[in-house]
Design brief:
Structural class of chain A: mainly beta
Number of strands of chain A: 12
Distance between the termini of chain B: 53 Å
Number of strands of chain B: 12
Largest sheet of chain B: 5 strands, mixed
CATH topology of the largest domain in chain B: Rossmann fold
Order of helices and strands of chain A: EEEEEEEEEHHEEHHE
Number of domains of chain A: 1
Helix content of chain B: 25-40%
Distance between the termini of chain A: 19 Å
CATH class of chain A: Mainly Beta
Radius of gyration of chain B: 20 Å
Strand order of the largest sheet of chain B: 4-1-5-10-11
Largest interface: A-B, 34 and 41 residues
Shape of chain A: elongated
Number of domains of chain B: 2
Structural class of chain B: alpha/beta
Strand content of chain A: over 45%
Radius of gyration of chain A: 19 Å
Order of helices and strands of chain B: HEEEHEHHHEEEEEEEEH
Number of helices of chain B: 6
Number of helices of chain A: 4
Oligomer: heterodimer
CATH architecture of chain A: Beta Barrel
Chain lengths: 233, 246
Amino acid sequence: MVGIGGEYTPDFVGSKSSKFVPIPIFAIRRAGSIDQFRGPRDSASIALLDVGNFHAGPAFKYVSSRKSDKYSELTGLGNVDAAYELGGFVEYYPVDWLRLRSELRQGFGGHTGTVADVSADVIVPLIQRLTISAGPRFTWKSTNATAPYFGVDAAQALASGLPMYDARGGAHSVGFGSQISYRINPQWEVHAYVEYEKLLGDVADSPLVKLRGSSNQTTVGLGASYSFDFRIR
Amino acid sequence: MRRIAFLWVGLAAACIALGAAAAFETRATKLQAIKTVGIVSAIGEEMSLTQAGLTAIGNTGQSVSISAWGLDELIVQQATKLLSGRFRVQPVNYRRAAFAAIRDSAVAPVNLLRSDPFKELVRSDVTPQGLDAYIVITRARSKLGNGRNVEGVGLAEYRTLLADYGLIHALYEVRVIDGKTFDVIEKRAAAPLDNTGTVRIAGPSGSIDEPLKGSVSSERLRAAIADLIIRSLPLTLGDMHLIDGP
């Protein structure tokens, strides 16, 4: 499956302004198999354990770098390198229309903390081709995953004009997401989604968010994908 | 430094290409050498009844016996007819239940790492031994909806808020097992018959009309399943280069 999408998302986590980001869509699955539900916030993952309604396996997320010279709000805070989060996921469907998912990932590079995501999605097929889904989300991050983005040390305080701040880990955000997808024909599918996050705890109290940004984070996205079969040999 | 990196990448690509070519060559050579085959089929003893989509809490799949339908006999008969042009097909005896009892592991890497379980069964359970190869046809698996796996022959219902959709499936895979070494020479799952349905599963399937649902034992249902098998078998064996295209 190949496709292209885009999302209108905050410039950086905690920002009050947003930007449009193009997103390539690419997936390989067995010929003819039905698309499995996937949430916009899900990390890239492979279900190595699959017992029908319970899936588990490794998960990976790329967190892009945060360059201080790109946005005026970040002036003086320095760059944060790109981070690679490696971990695992578990997913359980008590019924076909309800997905409970949790991810636990360890960061490398830009941050070296631990991140946990928990989400639930009610998935309602309205007709064969049209599916809507929605549900709550919660994210927890350790201090090492929070401080590089929301802490302000003495040098940064001097350069940025923000007060010094010691950002510690804990509840990072709570939110709600909804998605709609329509399969035009067996090849073409279009989808759109909205994800809202309310930043919490030390993240929401960070001077970067309080004085220059917003704790309300909304992402709107849409995309189209084309599925085709190919046979090896 | 960059030139050395390119050289290594080129060397790796060449090794992969040569390895793949050698594997195809070995497989083609082994298939060429086959003169006598026996056919084992073990997909038609039972039919699953599955509901997916908007289902009630606690809904679990069921299965019913359809051994009286004689689907495995039909498969052996059809495969014999198709393969006879190229191979001498000999009847074989085997315990169908033993072949039907083998399941894939839920842990995907285990299936890649362990020895194919059908090899041992062909060695120990099939008579006569000594044929050049054995064609083994067993159940394949697919996803239906989000949290349901379906296997083999089945009748499924996909429920949505505004409408329900019924479909039948006959999911199977074919192995060619060397009669001397018992290595799997070739393995392929039957592909979907067409690309028109929107409730898709990874194998031969078709939608069914309302009157067919709920009449599990009906002759029409048996005929519809048999039709899936009869139409898909030549395509699958053709894909495996066991027969000249359908």
